[in-house]
Every structure is written in C-alpha cells, then in structure tokens.
C-alpha cells in the first residue's frame, strides 16, 4: 500500500507533469471506483490542472476549482503515460479503474490488482466533502505538528502504539510498512500501550517518526511513478524482511501475522530479546 512518502512523490510527480494542462477525457473502467455523483466526471473536461496536493494518503488534483481526488488503497497504483493510447477503456475488461486524458496527449491510469476493489475516486467542489479527508488526523510532517501535540494524542489512547500510528483519524499518512520502520528506529515494541509511554519514549518515537518519514520522502522525491514501489521496498529496514538480518544489531527479523496483514520487528532492538505473541494475547511468548 502506498503511504505518505510514496503518495507525496506521486503528487509531486503529477504536479510537475500536469499543471497547466487541461483535462480532455475521464474514462471509468470500474463501475464502483467513483464514490460521488455530483458533479459528474464530465465536469472535469476542459478544466485546467491548477495544482496537485496530498491529504494523508489521498491525492487531490484541482481542476479549475473542481477536485478530482483518489485514494489508491492497498493494491492501487498510478501509471503515467506521455502518450496515452487512443483506445477507450471498457468497464470490467482490464485492471484500469480510471483513465484521465490531458490535452497534450499525456495522462494517467489508476490501476488496481486483486479481487478486493478498494481504490476510490471522488469528484467534489471541496476536498472536505470527501469523508476520509474530513476525518483525517494531523499530518506527521506538518511544521506545526509539535512533540507536545504528539504527546497529547498518545496520552489519550490506551491502545497498542502500532495501531495508533496506523489510524488515519489519529495521524494521517502512516500505514503498516512505515509504522514498522518507525517503531524499529525508536526501539519500541509494536504492542506498547500509547498512553503508558513515558516522556523519553514519546520523544524518541516522535523523532523516529519525523526522521523516518522525512528520509523516505527525500528518497522518493523526483522518482517517476514506475520506480517508487521498488524504492520503497529497498529502503525498508525490517518491514517485509522476515527472517533477514536486522541492520541495527544482526538479530533475525521476526513477524507477527494477523488475518490479512503482518508486522515485522527485531526482538533484540524492540522487545528486550523476547519474541512477541500474536495480537489475541498481546503478550510476550514465554
């Protein structure tokens, strides 16, 4: 799933390629991808791309005051083309969910792999009309998001820190991968209870969150969409590296599996050398 660093890079990429061009076509390859009906997609046609922004994991393309917003969900991606094919996509016949054409012949497809179709697109007059944007927590890289703000958020929640970091209504933009990375840098168990963290732990976690995300944004910056997935994988310290060597201490990277996801961590760095049990017990294995 693309998270804050990759979504920021995609937004920057689209801004550099599409700003100043006009939308000349919007084709839907999926009947379910569009979550709004008024205004219709045709309202975008003829409108100039005035800017591209990011809200959490959402990308907002401002087309003359009408906003085309999308969320790539778990299996979605953006595929840019300097010269889109002239053939019109047929609903249900390809992994392409949406195609947006620009007046110089370029444009992009939003694609989604797998059978669970969660990619979502919206055409709205204001980004706040998208429920997922309206309910977002603060951006962890915002200049005005202080350590004190972060401490207040954690202090109010008696929940595992891994889940708190991933909750978009609490902090926007962090998902499964970067929460693993942040907790590894902070040397903190993913099962630690947010409200129980002392001042030193909160400070360490805040610094790890900001530095990890900022470094990932810098790495992704300037890369075309086609290279972002590989760059993300290559930069991971523990996420997706089960049974590999921890780059910090040399111990093996371990995994806790859930119904539809998993987390990775280093026991030596994060849990005092004790392997974690599964989420049903949220305790250490004896």
UniProtKB/TrEMBL annotation:
<feature type="domain" description="Formamidopyrimidine-DNA glycosylase catalytic">
    <location>
        <begin position="2"/>
        <end position="119"/>
    </location>
</feature>
<feature type="domain" description="FPG-type">
    <location>
        <begin position="237"/>
        <end position="271"/>
    </location>
</feature>
<keyword id="KW-0378">Hydrolase</keyword>
<dbReference type="InterPro" id="IPR012319">
    <property type="entry name" value="FPG_cat"/>
</dbReference>
<dbReference type="InterPro" id="IPR015886">
    <property type="entry name" value="H2TH_FPG"/>
</dbReference>
<comment type="similarity">
    <text>Belongs to the FPG family.</text>
</comment>
<dbReference type="Pfam" id="PF01149">
    <property type="entry name" value="Fapy_DNA_glyco"/>
</dbReference>
<keyword id="KW-0227">DNA damage</keyword>
<dbReference type="Pfam" id="PF06827">
    <property type="entry name" value="zf-FPG_IleRS"/>
</dbReference>
<protein>
    <submittedName>
        <fullName>Fpg/Nei family DNA glycosylase</fullName>
    </submittedName>
</protein>
<keyword id="KW-0456">Lyase</keyword>
<dbReference type="InterPro" id="IPR010663">
    <property type="entry name" value="Znf_FPG/IleRS"/>
</dbReference>
<keyword id="KW-0234">DNA repair</keyword>
<keyword id="KW-0862">Zinc</keyword>
<keyword id="KW-0511">Multifunctional enzyme</keyword>
<keyword id="KW-0479">Metal-binding</keyword>
<keyword id="KW-0238">DNA-binding</keyword>
<dbReference type="Pfam" id="PF06831">
    <property type="entry name" value="H2TH"/>
</dbReference>
<keyword id="KW-0863">Zinc-finger</keyword>
<keyword id="KW-0326">Glycosidase</keyword>
<dbReference type="InterPro" id="IPR010979">
    <property type="entry name" value="Ribosomal_uS13-like_H2TH"/>
</dbReference>
<dbReference type="InterPro" id="IPR035937">
    <property type="entry name" value="FPG_N"/>
</dbReference>
<dbReference type="InterPro" id="IPR000214">
    <property type="entry name" value="Znf_DNA_glyclase/AP_lyase"/>
</dbReference>
């Amino acid at each position: 799933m693309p998270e804050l660093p990759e979504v920021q890079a995609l937004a920057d990429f689209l801004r550099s390629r599409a700003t100043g061009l006009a939308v000349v076509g919007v084709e839907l390859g999926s009947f379910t991808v569009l979550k709004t009906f008024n205004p219709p997609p045709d309202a975008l046609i003829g409108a100039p791309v005035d800017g591209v922004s990011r809200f959490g994991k959402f990308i907002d393309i401002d087309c003359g005051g009408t906003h085309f917003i999308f969320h790539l969900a778990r299996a979605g991606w953006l595929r840019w083309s300097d010269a889109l094919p002239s053939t019109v996509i047929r609903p249900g016949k390809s992994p392409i969910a949406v195609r947006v054409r620009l007046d110089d012949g370029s444009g992009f497809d939003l694609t989604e792999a797998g059978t669970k179709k969660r990619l979502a697109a919206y055409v709205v007059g204001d980004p706040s009309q998208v429920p997922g944007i309206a309910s977002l927590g603060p951006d962890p890289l915002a200049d005005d998001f202080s350590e004190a703000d972060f401490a207040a958020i954690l202090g109010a929640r008696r929940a595992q820190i891994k889940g708190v970091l991933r909750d978009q209504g609490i902090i926007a933009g962090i998902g499964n991968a970067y929460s693993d990375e942040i907790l590894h840098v902070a040397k903190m168990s993913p099962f630690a209870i947010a409200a129980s963290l002392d001042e030193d732990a909160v400070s360490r976690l805040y610094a790890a969150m900001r530095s990890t995300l900022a470094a990932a944004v810098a790495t992704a910056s300037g890369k075309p969409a086609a290279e972002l997935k590989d760059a993300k994988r290559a930069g991971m310290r523990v996420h997706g590296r089960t049974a590999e060597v921890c780059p910090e201490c040399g111990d093996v990277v371990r995994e806790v599996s859930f119904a539809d996801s998993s987390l990775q961590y280093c026991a030596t760095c994060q849990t005092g050398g004790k392997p974690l049990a599964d989420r049903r017990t949220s305790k250490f294995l004896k």
